User: Which sequence fits this backbone?
């Protein structure tokens, strides 16, 4: 298996590389432009070189090298000076964290994982420590590819496949999958594999393998690269209970080629969809300087790292601070099928792997229309080199329909503005599935976070003609198990300053009474300040919203504290039994809103090390249990939301986007609609065309 | 006041007009093209002429002439033949309903209102009857203008205004408003008026009068056109309780000009928004034949009437029936301020007035981008003539981002389609406020109904420096009272046929148990068929959805009945006390979902006559109380949804769109994603542009 032998870079090679780079370290690393700029490829390479120098002669595998953003106190001092138009008096040291395995021997798989902290400004490895007891390192593409290559060559795997009586020459494809633990101390380094095949009728490299699931799930020990077991995977129906179904003699003969690539469509493609183009003849309304974006009074920075992908930093509107940092912190995708080994299907796509790692390299003309800017993102190769994904994040403007309109019926004059938005988008591919995440800024001061779930369902085999209570049969022989997608946003607010509070507000009926409500139509709002770190839930039937306020600044008209309002998404929370390991691992998924006191290290709603964790360690539940003040303080607001996915047949072979959106809207932050100065929509600028006139002009029947 | 004297068309004029038209009646009315085509202007004129002929010598005021769609049995027979490609064997008679006042005398205001039914096919007035006991006719623009003109000339009004010490030469503007009753038998024909003024500093005809509210609310009796009272309107703050506040000597001097028209912006307009155009070089993907629309396997008809505005009829996808009729049935906007007379602010914008009546005449290049088709809508003048609003409804395609995507990480090949939608849109102006309603059809078989609330808040005066528990102060002296917008969709389903059922489905955890859920991750769906007419509520925490199924047709893969799924909007329901008149009038607003057995006359969730009704008469509550079978039957599904509007300062002077959406999605209706045959997105068709390249080409730095 030559494809993965390159990971075994010799100590000698490492030393050579080190010598080349060391001379450049000092001058180069001083050159970073802004403390929030993501690491460059060179910075990554330098950091790994410094680490390697501490273990001369050892074999390495790098998992990541990532920026440690400056401590908030230091950073806000810098940003305050910057916003005031001054040259910041002190540039913070450039600190990075690396995660890497050091192999025990020159050959073999046994390794120990370390966290290293490197100060690039001083060219020093500041700290190095093994992972905390019980923690497992996140998955890496390298390890997964290596393990898979060893698996497919193994006797155990070949024997198991032989028993399936697959058609001759069938091509098996495998998705390595996180091993979702089911009990404490399951062992920190395991990997499971979901197995599929190309349909023999086309054997197409882009065939939809998820329509041909194989009823086996191999498990491997990553410290030994040995096959632990080839677990049989149930293919029975509801009538079979927890037995494994009656695998037919030919396991997959009832599966069909249910393809998504255009050239494999049996009924061809639609021919009546005409092009629709977005044209911006005078260019974009945004400007980009490095990672700094300015657009329609907004100003923010687009950060990036291997774990969160795009991060939005230091957001101001018209010179006023709004949010310090916005990011998707993590997510969990637990499956509801209790039949072993399916019960272990629970992914934490950011913590177990990484949104930056999984980000698509976007293509012009496919993912967005109009004038597009791409931000690159640097990642770390297994050998520790920096490597750039050129189109990791895209930025563009969208027309989102009408922004505001009023027609004065007295004069019949309509004034209308369109709703232009600026979109920062990234798309993740996590094996079968795609997530499209977009931060959208509008002209009325609101920020929206949109998720689009698409891609291919994670499927398993079901015997011919059966149905199952654990999922829906979406194609012959294909069971799409019920599952959930539960996201958690981390919101570091800066509503007109660094000291904020959260107010829970509801609309409440008053009972009929002569004094307060004689006719019974009255209702009021009830507000409750969250004083100590705690959670809360969405309650749409009460119109419950959460206002992030600055308790020291007031709106001149309403006299309310200035605020941004979070209208929580109301999706169902985690369904796993509270006593389950699945629930212990994802306590963040059990309430919609969490308010905690800011700490620099509190980045991860489900804890830092999610892979194979048997509990959420250092996540939001632990944070609130510190019982800290969150009133008029430096706080964090976390919003958990998502969907329970009961798959439809229409979600296969690739599912139409399922869209969810969360909004942060100014509520008495401004003294009027901040979009009131957007120029009115006009035919002069928009150049719309009448359908009848277009047709007439094409048919030559007009003005000829 | 000459502007309203034209309403007093003499009997002689009516007779002349009748003679002219009668000769044309028979040949013309046979010519209607399709039973679902809206009435033409000529049909309206003919119908009113036939009615006038029954009351020769009488003065008339027409409120509406509207199509009575053929009885469903007759209509479905026609549509079934049509769908089968046959010439329908029987064309239903063309029936219209008219509502009109016949004045008691040649002069004076006293009148009686009638419902008339006219058969245009036979040129006969089939029936004529007075309005039901206690019912009031809906508002008409004519009556409102007449009443207002009389009001402003009245001594009572002039005296009341004089007491306000308004600046000299100030221009008062008045919005006639429905009189929301507060007790049974309040009298069937009253009108109230909300009074405002232009700001004296600009006296602009398009000034935002809602920033200068006057603290009086006149009431008139429409049978006598006499001023009943000029009610003082509270301008106090929370500290004033139910007293009326301390009107300052100069009532409105603390109000400012808070304007929305571009030329009145004190800080100017933004200058950095570049044009963004939608270009469809090969034309539209839809075709239009009369009111028939075909696009991307969808086929439906766009109906229209004065009350609902656009109605979607006879929807099929790829030749299969999906929905028979889709419409917004009605809405209510109750206000939560208990201070008399504000407690009577409760609008039913469709039943009290009419969405078609209030529809904007849309303008090319303002309301939509790209290639636009407009549908006209015919209305009835007060004299009974048909009058056409040319651009009442618009239809166009929109790009709504990514439709589906999958990247095969093995080959790095991404296949992506964009999410093109077809949008049928209308925009209502109801005095201060705007509603944008859009039916959106997507390529994956889903239909969405989107509401955008915009326009100007209905405001009242508040004394300087005060705040109120009944609303938010959005501009100096301007209180925007808390209120709700509660809509109700009427869904007449035809899921693969005429006999359907509704299934309520939830995702439900299982407790940990060795037999069924050993690891605690399991969950299942629970389904419950609604058997007799009843209501249900949204329950997002249970992932509750409502599937409209055809219990006789099954998906070949899942074996489930074919269905469309309604994911209910979870907005807060009516806040008015259940014992209030406000609640009795809007029982539809107290539950999210209503399932009733179809009857032809069941069109109105809040009853036919909402204006001044003191209870919802013949609405959904009455329908469910018939206790009829709704399983495997001809059924109606009603969906109530909306928002509690706690106004923000940012919602003034014109509010940014507040968007809500309800979706009807196929769920095991198709045998796969119906959008899988959409051609992949490509740069060839989309012609996107790189930001950097655009800038380089403009600056001449590239390839020069």
Assistant:
């Amino acid at each position: 298996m030559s494809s993965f032998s390159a990971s075994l870079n010799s100590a000698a090679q490492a030393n050579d590389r080190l010598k080349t780079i060391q001379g450049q370290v000092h001058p180069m690393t001083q050159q970073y432009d802004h403390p929030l700029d993501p690491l460059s490829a060179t910075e990554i390479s330098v950091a790994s070189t410094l680490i390697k120098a501490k273990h001369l002669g050892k074999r390495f595998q790098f998992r990541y090298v990532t920026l440690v953003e400056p401590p908030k106190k230091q950073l806000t001092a810098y940003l305050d000076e910057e916003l005031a138009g001054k040259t910041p008096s002190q540039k913070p040291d450039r600190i990075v964290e690396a995660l890497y395995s050091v192999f025990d021997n020159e050959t073999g798989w046994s390794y120990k994982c370390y966290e290293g902290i490197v100060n690039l400004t001083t060219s020093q490895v500041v700290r190095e420590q093994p992972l905390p007891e019980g923690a497992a390192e996140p998955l890496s593409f390298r390890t997964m590819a290596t393990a898979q290559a060893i698996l497919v060559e193994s006797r155990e795997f070949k024997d198991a496949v032989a028993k399936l009586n697959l058609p001759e020459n069938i091509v098996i494809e495998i998705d390595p999958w996180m091993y979702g633990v089911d009990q404490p101390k399951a062992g920190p380094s395991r990997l499971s594999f979901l197995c599929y095949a190309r349909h023999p009728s086309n054997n197409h490299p882009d065939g939809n393998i998820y329509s041909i699931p194989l009823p086996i799930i191999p498990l491997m020990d990553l410290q030994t690269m040995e096959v632990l077991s080839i677990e049989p995977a149930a293919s029975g129906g509801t009538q079979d209970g927890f037995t494994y179904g009656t695998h037919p003699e030919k396991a997959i003969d009832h599966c069909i080629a249910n393809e998504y690539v255009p050239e494999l469509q049996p009924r061809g493609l639609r021919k009546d969809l005409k092009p629709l183009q977005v044209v911006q003849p005078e260019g974009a309304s945004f400007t980009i300087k490095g990672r700094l974006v300015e657009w329609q009074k907004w100003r923010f920075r687009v950060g990036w790292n291997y774990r969160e992908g795009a991060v939005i930093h230091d957001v101001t509107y018209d010179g006023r601070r709004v949010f310090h940092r916005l990011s998707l912190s993590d997510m969990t995708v637990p499956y509801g099928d209790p039949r072993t080994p399916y019960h272990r299907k629970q992914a934490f796509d950011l913590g177990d792997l990484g949104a930056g790692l999984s980000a698509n390299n976007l293509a012009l003309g496919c993912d967005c229309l109009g004038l597009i800017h791409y931000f690159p993102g640097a990642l770390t190769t297994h050998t520790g080199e920096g490597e750039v994904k050129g189109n990791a994040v895209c930025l563009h403007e969208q027309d989102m329909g009408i922004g505001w309109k009023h027609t004065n019926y007295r004069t019949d004059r309509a004034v209308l503005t369109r709703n232009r938005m600026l979109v920062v988008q990234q798309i993740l591919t996590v094996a079968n599935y795609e997530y499209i995440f977009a931060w959208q800024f509008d002209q009325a001061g609101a920020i929206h976070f949109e998720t689009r779930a698409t891609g291919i369902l994670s499927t398993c085999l079901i015997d011919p003609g059966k149905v199952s209570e654990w999922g829906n049969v979406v194609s012959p022989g294909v069971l799409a198990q019920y599952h959930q997608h539960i996201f958690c946003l981390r919101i570091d607010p800066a509503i007109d300053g660094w000291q904020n509070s959260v107010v829970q507000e509801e609309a409440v009926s008053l009972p009929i009474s002569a004094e307060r409500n004689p006719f019974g139509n009255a209702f009021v709002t009830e507000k409750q300040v969250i004083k100590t770190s705690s959670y809360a839930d969405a309650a749409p039937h009460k119109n419950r919203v959460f206002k992030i306020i600055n308790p020291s600044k007031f709106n001149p008209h309403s006299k309310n504290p200035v605020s941004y309002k979070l209208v929580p998404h109301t999706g169902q929370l985690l369904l796993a039994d509270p006593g389950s390991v699945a629930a212990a691992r994802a306590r963040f998924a059990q309430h919609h809103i969490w308010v905690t006191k800011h700490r620099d290290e509190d980045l991860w709603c489900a804890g830092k090390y999610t892979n194979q964790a048997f509990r959420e360690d250092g996540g939001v539940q632990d944070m609130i249990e510190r019982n800290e003040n969150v009133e008029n303080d430096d706080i964090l607001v976390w919003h958990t939301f998502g969907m329970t996915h009961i798959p439809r047949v229409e979600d296969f072979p690739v599912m139409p986007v399922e869209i969810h959106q969360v909004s942060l809207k100014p509520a008495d932050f401004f003294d009027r609609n901040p979009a009131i100065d957007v120029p009115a929509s006009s035919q002069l600028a928009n150049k719309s065309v009448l359908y009848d006139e277009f047709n007439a002009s094409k048919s030559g029947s007009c003005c000829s």
The mean pLDDT of chain B is 93. The first strand of chain B starts at residue 60 and ends at 68.
